[in-house]
Design goal:
Blueprint: H1 5-24, H2 32-55, E1 70-71, E2 75-76, H3 77-104, H4 109-117
Antiparallel strand pairs: 1-2
């Protein structure tokens, strides 16, 4: 598997969470503008951070584990895809938990309990 290792992990992450969209109705892909905005906001600081870290030799990527396509000669394509795939998987999981919670507790109890956990809820 060698050069496809990183890509295989990303594909596996998407494959594992994809059923949350259609099976549970997470509705992440059905809101493309919201998804796009979320990805831009999530990706931007981390891509910049990653590029700086690579340029400063804080970390590097194994040519044996990537497909060899480097963006601007700096960042492997898989690393950029990581910043797309992982937030999508997180959003799918988050939305699925909310939907399942709403089904389990249709009276809104889950939403109230989650709101009470927020730091700004003033519980202390």
């Amino acid at each position: 598997m060698g050069s496809l290792s990183y890509l295989a992990v990303l594909i596996a992450c998407l494959a594992v969470t994809a059923p949350l969209e259609w099976g549970i109705g997470a509705r992440v892909y059905r809101q493309p503008r919201r998804l796009g905005l979320t990805l831009v906001l999530a990706m931007t600081p981390f891509v910049v951070w990653d590029v700086v870290a690579i340029l400063r030799d804080h970390w590097s990527f194994s040519a044996e584990r990537t497909i060899g396509v480097n963006l601007a000669g700096i960042m492997p394509l898989e690393e950029l895809l990581f910043f797309v795939v992982i937030p999508i998987c997180a959003l799918l999981t988050h939305q699925a938990v909310l939907r399942l919670g709403a089904r389990r507790w249709p009276d809104g109890r889950l939403a109230r309990e989650l709101a009470a956990l927020r730091p700004d809820a003033g519980g202390d």
